[in-house]
Design goal:
112 residues, mainly alpha
């Protein structure tokens, strides 16, 4: 059982790393968009989505193992990892909307 918990924790840490990288990319995208660097912001969105996709893949593997009964109990660390995944997803949605608004602002800005 202790070995199973170790495996679950390793998976959780992988999810946390992916979610953290994704969230950081999304925040960076918003900062770039605010500066009017729309292309760079869109690239950061792509990077964030790839990181999030990797975390989501890891999460799917975790769910499969849990359904098969090959993992132990759900730990607080796994709950935290899932929370970070949801937070990263929310940041991605908000970042895309902010970039769209900033793009409109910089293209419709008076004097352009």
């Amino acid at each position: 059982m202790a070995e199973d918990c170790g495996q679950a924790d390793r998976i959780a840490f992988q999810m946390i790393a992916s979610a953290g990288s994704a969230r950081s990319s999304f925040v960076e995208a918003m900062d770039l968009a605010e500066e009017g660097k729309i292309r760079e912001a869109e690239e950061k969105i792509r990077e964030g989505k790839e990181e999030f996709r990797q975390g989501h893949q890891i999460h799917a593997e975790l769910l499969k193992k849990m359904a098969e009964g090959t993992l132990g109990q759900i730990s607080l660390l796994l709950v935290h990892a899932e929370d970070l995944m949801m937070s990263a997803e929310d940041f991605g949605i908000l970042a895309e909307r902010l970039i769209h608004l900033e793009q409109r602002y910089f293209t419709e800005k008076p004097g352009k």
